[in-house]
TrEMBL record:
InterPro entries documented for this protein: GcrA
UniProt region (Disordered), positions on chain: 45-156
Pfam families tied to this protein: GcrA
Organism of origin: Komagataeibacter intermedius NRIC 0521
Source organism superkingdom: Bacteria
Residues annotated as signal peptide: none
Protein name in UniProt: GcrA cell cycle regulator
Amino acid sequence: MAMEWTEETIARLRDLWQQGLSTAEIGRQLSVTKNAVVGKAHRLGLKPRPSPIRRAAKTASAPAATTAASPAAEPAVESTPTTPAAEAAAPAVTPAAPPALQKAPAKAQTAPTPAPQPKPAAPAAAETAPAPRATRATKAALRPVSEPRRRSSQSCCWPLGDPGTPGFHFCGATPLPGKPYCAEHAQLAYVKLRDRRDNVA
DNA sequence: CCCTGATTCGC
DNA sequence: GCGAATCAGG
């Protein structure tokens, strides 16, 4: 099987793509590979995003044709490694622990062993459940997240709404001492990674 | 090494 | 049409 690419998925692809998410990021959120994302994006015709490379000018055929080099200045949409939109999704708040984004990848979910002690990781709620993202997000999370310097944020960083969308925002309530989330969301956040039926419908 | 996106080509 | 494989730059 290839992938259904229903109107829905295509719509999401378009949306995420437009939001400036990286192909890999989109792929994760759509549970497909980045290749699939790129390929589809091409076929869909959308794709004016900054490419890190410029594949050699087409073999043969007008090699010295209108090769205007054209270093077409890219919009400031470029940040650095990691997804630009992802940062945009979780800005300003300087959360002690990066809130997982919405939608859980059906795969690539290297089930983070249920730690004996609650650790900020798996917000698993019903709808708009910000699910834990393994892969490199995990790596990042495993790093000095402890960060002795920055204490917890002054506001709950539980994500509400879809990152990137206008309505997206963080809870903002007063978080528990030492926790990035408020009392209510902490309960959701520190679930033991059990039934987190992905909503990735 | 990691990441990124782009293209090719068998399916 | 699809996307893994491959390529190529950072």
